[in-house]
Each structure stands twice: as C-alpha cells, then as structure tokens.
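Ligand: beta-D-fucofuranose. Inputs:
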Amino acid sequence: MKKLIALVLALTLVLSASSAFALTIGFSQIGQESDWRTANTDNVCNAIEEAGWELVYSDGQQKQENQVQALRSFITQGVDYILFTGVVTTGWDEVLKEVNEAEIPLILLDRIPSCVDDIEYAAAFGGDFVEEGKRMVRWLANYLEKEGRGEEEINIVMLEGTTGADAQVGRSEGILAELENHPNMTLVESQTGNFTRAEGQQVMETFLNSIDDIDVLLAQNDDMALGAIEAIKSAGLKPGEDIIIIGCDSVKAAFEAIVAGEMNCTVECTPLYADFLIPTIEGLEAGETYGRDIIHPEEYCYDAEGGIPYTEDGEALSIKAADVIDERVY
Ligand code: GYE
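Predicted complex:
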C-alpha cells in the first residue's frame, strides 16, 4: 500500500511538473502595424497571462506564410486553444483544416478568413467592417448637411488598409455602397497605405501632389489619418479645416487630433477582445458551446462636437471626443 501511495505521489508530481499551466493558448497575431494592433496584442496577451494560462505568442509580421508556420507549430506543440486573426482573408483553407483535424478548438478574432463557412470553430469575434465603412460616409454626409454643404460637389480621397485584409475589404465595400446614396460625392483616388502612419503620410503626399481639390480624406484606420495629417501640414494646408479627415478605430491619438482640431471624426472599432475571450474559453472548458455567429462588439463614433447621426436609422449620435479622451487607454 505504501509503495502504491508513493507511486501515485510520484506520478502526480511528474504530471503537474509537465503541465504547470492549466491551459496553453497559441495566439497567431498579424504584426504591429497600428495603435489598434498594439492595444489588441496587449489586451489579449495580458488577459491570458492574468488567467494563469500559458501563452504561445507568434507575430506574423504581416506575412501569411509566417502565420501558416505558426499555426502548424501550435499543432505540433499540442496547444489547448488557438486564437487566430489572418492578415488577409484568403488562403487559409488548408492550414485551418489541419487545425480542425488536430481537434484543437479554434477561436477566430478580428479579421475573419473567407473560408469561415467551411471550417469548424469554437467561437468568433470580429469588427463589423462593412458597417464601419458605411458609418464613415453617413457621418460625412450628415456633417456636410449640418455645415450647409449638403449639395456641394465633394472630392474624396481614400487610404485603404492592407489589400485583401478583411478590414480593408469590408470597409471599402461599406464606403462604396454608402457613396452610391450621395451623387454629389466623388471618390477621385484610392490607394493602400497598409494601415500604417508612414505609408498614410507617403500616399497622402502623392495625392496632394497630383490632385488639385481634395475636400475629404477617408482613412480606413486612424494611423493612416494621422500620417496624412503630417503630409497635409507639410503641403501648407490645415488638416481638419481645408480637408475633412475621417478615420476608423478610435484610438487615443485620433481623439487628441480631434481635440486639436486637426481631424474631424473617428468611427470606432474596438481592439479589446479579452472580456469576450476569457469567459468564452472558461465556458468552453465547462462544456458550453457558442454557435457559429460572428459576434460584433458594440461600437460608437467620435468627433469634435458630438450629435451627428451615423447609423442607418439615424438614431445613434456621435460622441464628443473631448468627453471620453481620458478614459481611452490605447
Ligand atoms: O482597424 C487597423 C489594424 O483588423 C480591425 O487592423 C483591424 C485593423 C484596424 O491595423 O488599425
């Protein structure tokens, strides 16, 4: 009997030593292109560590092949869960099927892959990118109306996100769809700025050099808008006055630009997924299921004065950025 107890004790020690953590979570992140991404990485990674789970983090550095490699290494390591957001929408079918075959629960967040209907996943959380694009144009139309410029011919330039990224595809779709309702608005030029400040600035410089009369900049994220602000200043123009600037994400730096009068609006896309993610993993551990719906967090729209409608029903009104800037942590 004593021998048996000793054996059980030894075995328990070996087992607990080999799994010091209750769970191991592999997180394949896209890269570090924007303030949004930094906030998202910090929020998710800190929450996993605070939950007492082991985090295996991989930064894909904007390369699909790096992310494919990371996913395969998560399978080899036998992690308990995989968190995944893909740099582009296409080309994930094979590797995500491998994840399914390995029976590792997959949680999709942020950018959803286009093969979503053909794979198994335990839960999915992402931005409503088409709606965000529509909000950018709805806010613009209602703002121009309020300024007495509702009938004016308006020239728009657009900075797009990383080509083929869910957030770029969706926001472009929403923006173009909503522009159809406003024949006085013309999209004169649109190019990618890869969701970064540096490229936002560069591309805006080329826009300013080649287009005479730019009324509005639609930037598919705030970082590109902030880069473009520098280009507009260098060209001797006043950002936020000579050119109306609308961004997306609602990061603190955009609120600061709005308060400084250099940016006009930012449509929210939250990077804070931890409050969904941690309870979901705990729920899955307890045997709960979450269905196939992609859950979109509730999001708002911020500007200098507040009070501008941006939803289809016209009921939600923009919030004054100065009123919330202190609460924004990213
Ligand atoms: O808007 C942008 C980031 O996928 C929603 O990626 C995300 C986007 C976000 O680089 O700033």
